[in-house]
Amino acid sequence: NSIAIFYYYYFCLMQIILTQIAMLALMATIGAVAYLTRLIKEDTANGMVKLVTKITLPLLIFTTFAGNDTSPEILKNSAIVIALSMGSVVLFFLFAGVSARILRLSADNTALHRVSAMFGNVVFLGFPIINALYPGGEGLIYATMFHLGQNALIWTWGVYILYSSRNRSGGKSWKNLLNPVTIAFAAGITFMFLPFTIPDIIMSPLSQIGKTTTYISMVYVGTVLAMVNPLRVFSNIRSYLVSFNKLLLVPVILLLLLKYAGLAELLHMNSTAVGVVVLLAGMPCMILISVLVRDLDLDYKQSVGNIFLSTILSFATISFLYWLL
């Protein structure tokens, strides 16, 4: 019976991964076709970047944080997951720095290499997988906390890394953090801890607009893929090293530390929490990174290549991580 249950959930996992990747591919294909048929031109793509970074993404961040339940019980049980989420980002930063040295990348390319590895596609691909593998709601609670931990770093440390690569002055880079994204993050955190909730008549339309971020971003990714030679993506060693760090190296290290080195037992973590941390750490590169990179005039084609290759390879690596778990 246990073997049958294992294969049932394994089949469900494969189906969900394939479905989510197919949805991403379809959205990107629409963008690529629109670009190739000249319905979307390069200036239109630039407008999409501004739409995401200035409107839809800030609204997504604000409504995600402001709409979260922060009861004392949830905060207490999820603090370890948040800490491990942030810890995994630090590990990605360190190991990506090593691979960047091996590749002898410039400062701006090192920043892109690191940020691509540090943050993953937790919401669009990760949440459905966790919900299928750990039904009942507990898995999604931990997944939300993992997402909060990652978000807390991407809109602070992650943005700072990218800005620093473009502007070597640390002081000026910190000033650049004052933008719609970080303002929305600070406002969302503030409202999350206030003793009242924002009326649904306000939150609902803001949330719906924010949720379009993934779809607009994927159409944009498709337009950029249409600008580059897809064959070059599969021959780009930088994308393979990002994918190795993101999909295998750090998630396996986390698994070894938590499950086999006794860290989970020391922290009183159950198997669901361990599984959520390991699987979400092994998600492919975050789609929104390519939008932020384009907005900063960095190598957005390399960023899209990282997203494309890591997403394709994640079908096998997430299956492997689940087998290890």
Q: Care to describe what's here?
A:
The chain is mainly α and 325 residues long. Helices cover 82% and strands 0% of the residues. Helix 4 packs across helix 12 and helix 10 packs across helix 16. The protein starts with a helix and ends with a helix. About 2% of the residues have low confidence.
Determine the N-to-C terminus distance.
18 Å
Shape: globular
Largest sheet: none
Number of helices: 16
Number-wise, the strands total: 0
The value of Rg in angstroms is 19 Å
Query: Helix-strand pattern, N to C?
Result: HHHHHHHHHHHHHHHH
What's the pLDDT, averaged over the residues? Answer: 85
| Range of helix content | over 70%
- What is the SS-derived class? mainly alpha
Strand content: under 5%
Instruction: Return residue spans where pLDDT drops below 50 for at least 5 consecutive residues.
Output: 168-173
Key features of this structure:
single chain, 325 residues, mainly alpha, 16 helices, 82% helix
Write the layout of secondary structure elements.
Layout lengths: L1 H35 L5 H25 L5 H32 L3 H12 L3 H12 L4 H29 L3 H7 L3 H13 L7 H11 L1 H16 L2 H4 L3 H24 L2 H4 L4 H11 L6 H8 L4 H25 L1
Q: Brief description of this entry?
A:
With 325 residues, the chain is mainly alpha-helical. The chain is 82% helix and 0% strand.
